[in-house]
Design brief:
Cholesterol Oxidase, domain 2, alpha/beta, globular, 24% helix, 7-stranded antiparallel β-sheet, 13 helices, 550 residues, 7-stranded mixed β-sheet
C-alpha cells in the first residue's frame, strides 16, 4: 500500500527544516521532509571554521553559471548546498536581516500583504535564540542560536576603527533600530558550534512519530491531478517511486532548485518547456525569472605579521587548533572567519545602505580567491541593491542535466558602477591609519590598478557570488508572479513555494535569516494559524548618513 503524508516538503534546507519542525508540532498531521543531499554528521558541518572548506565544493551540487555576457563572458562557480540544513549548514553563519524598508517594499511595491517589516519581525524573533540581545528587535527563546563572535583577532578591532576613520559610525547591532555602520556581525552559533536549521529546528523534532526525514533522495517531479498537486515522484539510487500527499506539497528547494523542480514537473513558461520537450501542464510564465543575487568584489592585503588565521593551515597548528577546540571550545576553530563588517553607501542618494562589507581573517578563504604566500586578510564589498535580473532554465528534459543559471550580473550598468565604487571604498578602508600596524601592502587589486579599464578587468576576473540567489518564484499579483502572498502557486491547488525564491526583491544583507523567517511565517500560513501580532514600535526610518541628507 502506498504511503501517504499530509504534507510533503521537497528540500531540507533552511526553510524546509523550519517547516518540518513547526508543522510536525501538531501530532495529528504527518510530515515528510525529502532532501537530495546527505546527513550533516561530519565535524566540518558543526565546527564554525569548517566554512572555509564549504564554498569549494563540499556538500554542493557543483553548479556554475552560464557565461556572463556583461562580465567578459566569465563563468562563475555557484555554490548551492546539497546537505540537510542547506545553506545554513555550509555558510559563514552571518546573521543579518537587511533593512526594514526591504520588507515594506515587498508589501507596498510588490503588493504582498502581510510581509511588511512590522509583520515579519515577530517571525524573526520567534526563530531567534539570541545570547546577548533581548529587546524589541530580538528573541531569546527560539531554536536558532545567535551569538556574538568569540574568536575575532585584534585586526578586527583595527578594521572597525579604520571604518570610523572613514566616517562610518560604529554599530553594535546591525539587526536593531539602524542598519548602517561598522561592527561585529552576529553569528548562527550556539555553544561554540554552528547552529544550522538542521541542528536548531530539525534535530529536536526528529523523534516525533509523525515526522519522516528522507535523505539522499531527490524529488524528480510533482504529480498533478488536474489542477491539484497530489504527490511527488522521488528518485533514490536510480529508482523512482511515487509518494502521495493528502494536503499540500511544499516546495523548498531553493532559488535554483525550486523553479527547476516546477519546470521539470511541467509548471512554468510554456515556450521554454516546449523547447526542451516537457509537456506543459500549467503555463506559469514567471517561473525561473527574476533571479538576482549579491556579487562580491574583494581587496586582498598582505599582513605585516601573523595577524590572520592563514598560519593555522600549517599541519602542526591545525592539529593544535583542533585540540584546543575539542578541549576548551575556543581558538581558531570557533571563528566563522567573517565576523566583522559594515553597511554603507555607494550611491549617496540611496535611501538606505546599498553596500555590505565582510572582513575575512585570512586569504583564499573562498573558492576562486587567491591564497597569499604570507598571512593576509580579505575585504569583500557587495552592492546589495542590484537592479539586474536573470533566469533559471532547463538544459533539457533530463533531470540529471545541470540547470542553466544566468544571474545576468551587471546587465544594468548602474550595478557595475556601484560595485566598482564599493571596491574603491574597500581599498580606502584598508588604507586607514588604524590598519597600518597590521597591513604591509595591498596585494590585490594592487597599487598599480588605478585606471578604470584595469579595475574593470580585475572585477570581471575576481568577482564571485555572495551565495544569495533569490526571486525565481516571486510572490505578487501580476502576470509574472508565481505565488500569492500566502505562498500558493497561482492557478494550482495543494502546492506552495516557501523559500528564498519567493522574495520579490532581495533583502539588503545575507539571506539565510530571512529564509528562516519565510519558513516560520509559511508554517503558520500552511497550518491555518493566525499570524503573529505585528510589531507596534517605531524604528529608525531615516537610515541615511549626513552626506546623503545634504
Amino acid at each position: 500500500m502506498q504511503k501517504r503524508y499530509d504534507y510533503i516538503i521537497t528540500g531540507g534546507g533552511s526553510s524546509g527544516c523550519v517547516l518540518a519542525a513547526r508543522l510536525s508540532e501538531d501530532p495529528d498531521v504527518s510530515v515528510l521532509l525529502i532532501e537530495a543531499g546527505g546527513a550533516d554528521r561530519h565535524y566540518l558541518f558543526h565546527w564554525p571554521a569548517g566554512f572555509a572548506k564549504m564554498t569549494k565544493g563540499i556538500a554542493s551540487w557543483g553548479w556554475s553559471t552560464v557565461p556572463q555576457k556583461h562580465m567578459q563572458n566569465r563563468v562563475l562557480w555557484y555554490t548551492q548546498a546539497k546537505v540537510i540544513g542547506g545553506g545554513s549548514s555550509i555558510n559563514a553563519q552571518v546573521y543579518t536581516r537587511g533593512n526594514a524598508r526591504d520588507y515594506d517594499d515587498w508589501r507596498d511595491v510588490a503588493g504582498c500583504e502581510g510581509w511588511g517589516f512590522r509583520d515579519v519581525l515577530p517571525y524573526f524573533k520567534r526563530a531567534e535564540g539570541n545570547e546577548r540581545f533581548d529587546d524589541d528587535y530580538h528573541g531569546t527563546d527560539g531554536p536558532l542560536g545567535v551569538c556574538v563572535p568569540r574568536a575575532a583577532l585584534p585586526i578586527c578591532d583595527a578594521f572597525i576603527r579604520a571604518g570610523q576613520q572613514m566616517g562610518i559610525p560604529y554599530n553594535p547591532d546591525f539587526n536593531g533600530h539602524r542598519q548602517r555602520g561598522i561592527g561585529y556581525f552576529q553569528l548562527t552559533q550556539r555553544n561554540a558550534r554552528r547552529c544550522s536549521a538542521s541542528v536548531g529546528f530539525l534535530d529536536p523534532a526528529r523523534s516525533r512519530r509523525n515526522l519522516t526525514v528522507m535523505i539522499g533522495t531527490e524529488v524528480a517531479r510533482i504529480v498533478l491531478d488536474g489542477r491539484r498537486a497530489r504527490g511527488v515522484v522521488v528518485r533514490c539510487d536510480g529508482v523512482e517511486s511515487e509518494i502521495a500527499c493528502e494536503r499540500e506539497v511544499l516546495v523548498t528547494s531553493g532559488a535554483i532548485g525550486s523553479p527547476r523542480l516546477l519546470m521539470l514537473s511541467g509548471i512554468g513558461p510554456a515556450d521554454h518547456l516546449g523547447s526542451v520537450g516537457i509537456k506543459v501542464l500549467h503555463d506559469l510564465p514567471g517561473v525561473g525569472s527574476n533571479l538576482h543575487d549579491h556579487l562580491d568584489l574583494c581587496v586582498l592585503c598582505e599582513c605585516s605579521g601573523d595577524h590572520s588565521y592563514d598560519g593555522i593551515l600549517r599541519p602542526d597548528r591545525t592539529m593544535l587548533a583542533g585540540l584546543q577546540y575539542m578541549l576548551f571550545k575556543s581558538g581558531p576553530v570557533v571563528s566563522s572567519l567573517f565576523e566583522t563588517g559594515a553597511f554603507w553607501y555607494a550611491d549617496p542618494d540611496a535611501r538606505s545602505p546599498d553596500l555590505q562589507f565582510h572582513f575575512g581573517q585570512g586569504s583564499g578563504i573562498e573558492k576562486g580567491i587567491v591564497k597569499l604566500d604570507r598571512p593576509g586578510v580579505t575585504l569583500n564589498a557587495a552592492f546589495i541593491r542590484p537592479r539586474s535580473r536573470g533566469t533559471v532554465r532547463l538544459a533539457s528534459a533530463d533531470p540529471n542535466d545541470v540547470p542553466l543559471i544566468d544571474p545576468n550580473y551587471w546587465a544594468d550598468p548602474y550595478d557595475r558602477e556601484m560595485s566598482l565604487r564599493g571596491l574603491e571604498l574597500a581599498r580606502q578602508i584598508m588604507a586607514q591609519p588604524a590598519l597600518r600596524p597590521f597591513i604591509a601592502r595591498e596585494a590585490l587589486p594592487g597599487p598599480e590598478a588605478r585606471d578604470a579599464k584595469t579595475l574593470l578587468e580585475y572585477a570581471c576576473r575576481m568577482a564571485k557570488t555572495q551565495h544569495h540567489p533569490v526571486g525565481t518564484c516571486r510572490m505578487g499579483h501580476d502576470e509574472l508572479a508565481v505565488v500569492s502572498p500566502d505562498l500558493k502557486v497561482h492557478g494550482l491547488d495543494g502546492l506552495r513555494v516557501c523559500d528564498a525564491s519567493v522574495m520579490p526583491s532581495i533583502n539588503s544583507s545575507n539571506t539565510n535569516a530571512p529564509t528562516i523567517m519565510i519558513g516560520e511565517k509559511a508554517s503558520d500560513l500552511v497550518a491555518g494559524r493566525p499570524p503573529l501580532p505585528a510589531a507596534l514600535f517605531d524604528w529608525e526610518r531615516n537610515d541615511r548618513p549626513q552626506f546623503a541628507d545634504a
